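Lecture notes, unit on binding sites. The following record was shown on slide 14. It pairs a sequence with flavin mononucleotide.
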Amino acid sequence: MNAIDLLVTRQSDPQLIAPAPDKSCLETILTAGMRVPDHAGLLPFHFTVVENEGLKKLSDIFVQAITTPTTEQAKLDKTAKMPFRAPLIVVVSTKYQHHEKVPKHEQLITAGCCVHAMQMASVALGFGAMWRTGDLSLNDNVKQGLSINPQEDIVGFLYIGTKAKSLPLKPTKLYDDRVSYL
Ligand SMILES: Cc1cc2nc3c(=O)[nH]c(=O)nc-3n(C[C@H](O)[C@H](O)[C@H](O)COP(=O)(O)O)c2cc1C
């Protein structure tokens, strides 16, 4: 797939199954994640790779994070299954650096670019991927379970795997009402 085809046809795949990208493909995906626009080269991000027994660990982290005496069992069961929606997850979190010329929001954008770059690399390698966040990404217990400091942000859980089925290409969105010319 050439670069322009990739850029203009990117879409998410919610249904992902094994096999996960192998070691070599994962290295390529992570390398793409490192190749993002990054003001002052602060590397304001961290990637936590979750696969194999890590998926069960993440499931336990999710469940513990939402468990209160009143949490309904159905919610616990649904939450426990979430990490198994793909054989591989890369959790992208911020690693904010103090810099007089690079405000926090720019660093957050850079970390977001990492997720996008890794989704694109996954697709280019023939895999499917989907960027997810949700309440769990804002949950301090989840951060603690992943050894992410509370002042950092979880920018995304990038679910990656083999496409369960080939989805039809979504229509191209027209840019007309999102573009103006000065
Ligand atoms: C920051 C961010 C967080 C997202 N979180 C979720 C999520 O938690 N659940 C979800 O279904 N989609 C989420 N999405 C949207 C999907 O990743 C996807 O982009 C959307 O379903 C549109 O599909 P497409 O990527 O094929 O255009 C998120 C997207 C972004 C950019």
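Take-home: The chain has a mean pLDDT of 98.
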